[in-house]
Amino acid sequence: MTELRIVALEGIPEIRPGDDLAALIGDAVARTVGSLAQGDILVVAHKVVSKAEGRVARVSDGEHTDAILAETRRVRRRRDDLLIVETRHGFVCASAGIDRSNAPGDGWIVQLPVDPDASARRLREGIGSRFGLLPAVIVTDSFGRAWRQGTTDVAIGVAGMSPLLDLRGRPDARGRPLEATMIAVADELAAAAELVRGKATQSPAALVRGYEAPAGDGTARDLVMPTDRDLFP
Amino acid sequence: MTELRIVALEGIPEIRPGDDLAALIGDAVARTVGSLAQGDILVVAHKVVSKAEGRVARVSDGEHTDAILAETRRVRRRRDDLLIVETRHGFVCASAGIDRSNAPGDGWIVQLPVDPDASARRLREGIGSRFGLLPAVIVTDSFGRAWRQGTTDVAIGVAGMSPLLDLRGRPDARGRPLEATMIAVADELAAAAELVRGKATQSPAALVRGYEAPAGDGTARDLVMPTDRDLFP
């Protein structure tokens, strides 16, 4: 049977700046599934990464827009309080990923990690050294989309895998080249993990077992559409 | 353990116009997992739905653009051969969802179902009557996205569930209202199923077990951003 299992990691505590997140996620892996298996992928919501890295700030309501713009490379659209921006990483999302929910306290915000790929690499190495096995790691956020209602979780940081499955040149069942040639599997893994993280109240991390991630040393920047191909600037 | 399982359904044959797809998927459910369980969700790639419904056509290369425009309500962007359009259903995607790969033969195209929600309802009822248990059904396609590379599978038809998980009014861990209030879980389920369908070569359907879908009699049109809130027309 071709099967994928996604498990919510249990017992990760409220994270504070300076916490050793790799150790805490490692504890949760041991608690929930015993150990890592070859090919396991860890999917971690950026909020705990940002908190551990001190990417939180106290801002007044009047400073909220300034806090968004400080993380912004370019404002793409603005409607009333809604700002769709391109972050300093190149991601297009609402509010530059800044969020007041699940923040450390009233009047606090959580920002995106400065370098979410580097965050993913640190988790990969920290958790990997404990289990003697390097997992792929995806750091995620919930993004809205153009044209579609509702958020889905996407990858904003990646380590130990390519975020894209490249099918260029691969034929369909009848030998004709496939038309959809690049699949954003890191985004699909982020979305899949959200389903189980959301189901387990307050679980910031999930383990995916049974998916062979595309090999490679990719980065989430690979998921960003290059400017010259962006039809919705 | 909070766990989600996604299983590729095995042995679904090449589909031809007029085939009883509900029966064939039912056979695959029986073959792969024995029977349906309460809460199971079936995720089915539209290509087999479209083929069973006769939504295929033979067009010359010169007629390909006309075939796309025939399914189009409005062209959103055009660059060389790439057409990003709003389909008659309201979905924004490349080529109105028309695809030449995995088509019935050279020179053939596969179109989207005329009413993918109705297709999902028919599968729900057909498969449900066999097992005495009505599954939620999601019909999917692979869509590109604004600003991000690669396709992800999304829901274009839904039956037996709400495609959106509405968290409005629900508090975070500290009692503050959540900022991201609607999660497009049907799209996340479509994406999750693609991972296992893609892994199992040529599997057009997957079963998701262990996810409690939002109750409701929703439609995939709920996932379409209303025109007055679309910032990227």
Tell me what you see in this structure.
The structure is a homodimer of 233-residue chains. By secondary structure, the first copy, chain A, is α+β, with helices and mostly antiparallel strands. Chain A has 2 domains: 5-53 and 113-226, 60s Ribosomal Protein L30, Chain: A; 56-111, CofE-like fold (Alpha-Beta Complex), CATH 3.90.1660.10. Helices cover 25% and strands 25% of the residues of chain A. The first copy, chain A, is built from 5 helices and 12 strands. Chain A has helices at residues 21-33, 46-52, 64-70, 116-131, 185-199, and strands at 3-8, 41-45, 56-58, 72-79, 82-87, 92-94, 108-110, 136-143, 152-159, 165-166, 182-183, 205-209. A 5-stranded mixed beta sheet of chain A has the order 1-12-2-8-9, sandwiched between helices. A 3-stranded antiparallel beta sheet of chain A has the order 4-5-6. The first copy, chain A, has a two-stranded antiparallel sheet with strand order 3-7. Chain A starts with a strand and ends in a 24-residue tail after the last strand. The model of chain A has no long low-confidence stretch (mean pLDDT 94). Strand 1 (3-8) of chain A pairs antiparallel with strand 1 of chain B, so a sheet runs across the interface.
